[in-house]
Amino acid sequence: MPLSPKCLRVAARESPLSKAQVLEVQQALHPHHPMIELIPVWVATTGDKQQEISLRNMEKTDFFTKELDALLLSGQCDVAVHSAKDLPDPLPQGLSLIALTEGVDNRDVLVIREGLSLAALPQAAMIATSSERREQQARMLRTDFRFMDLRGTIGQRLSLLEAGVADGIIVAEAALIRLGLCHLNRVYLPGETAPMQGRLAILAKTEHVEMREIFACLDAESGLCLASSI
């Protein structure tokens, strides 16, 4: 008799990038656990809804994770998938990081319109970013840049560029990779990036030992990780 698939409920943000991240986890998990199917539960978090709030001075809070954590703690979901750099510090009591993937390119990039170069951007070009660190690194490319806040999905951010509201936007290269947008015209920023950028974090209830065992194959920190693609 064939085995029945085991379905796991996965809490994740409803953005296109988050959906690509969950698919990445499913594909990486499949060679090790081919009978496990991830059933996403898409959620709009506080951070997704309150786009008027600037991230420039925000600490490591649960701004993008609170609603997902609540689904885990209530037992409505088995695991949650996050961008690792968005994790609050400390994690909520009762939850544990059960896997931290190897990740993809962790660099930041300045995306500009097709056909332009860094030197060809206008004097005092307007650059969109919500990070003071990224702002400082962009100034290493050109000291005349001006800056505006940047929130929303990658698509919403790119629309600022397309509409001419901004001359460039700064995003994570990992986001472009996961969304198949590596054809965009971009310049890599110098300097360090946010800790754990490009990596995915999988959380579960601390007491849920089975989830830790299942996802151990994706944990780059444990030495058990056999998946080289995430």
Q: How would you describe the overall organization of this protein?
A:
By secondary structure, the protein is an alpha/beta fold. It has helices at 16-29, 46-49, 66-73, 132-139, 154-162, 173-178, 209-215, and strands at residues 6-13, 36-43, 79-83, 95-100, 108-112, 126-128, 146-148, 168-172, 186-188, 200-205. The strands form two sheets. The protein has a five-stranded mixed β-sheet, with helices on both faces. Strands 7-6-8-5-9 form a five-stranded mixed β-sheet, with helices on both faces. This is Hydroxymethylbilane synthase.
Short description:
The protein has 230 residues and is α/β, with parallel strands linked by helices. It has helices at 16-29, 46-49, 66-73, 132-139, 154-162, 173-178, 209-215, and strands at residues 6-13, 36-43, 79-83, 95-100, 108-112, 126-128, 146-148, 168-172, 186-188, 200-205.
Key terms:
230 residues; alpha/beta; D-Maltodextrin-Binding Protein, domain 2; 2 domains; five-stranded mixed β-sheet; elongated; disordered C terminus; EC 2.5.1.61; hydroxymethylbilane synthase activity; porphyrin biosynthesis
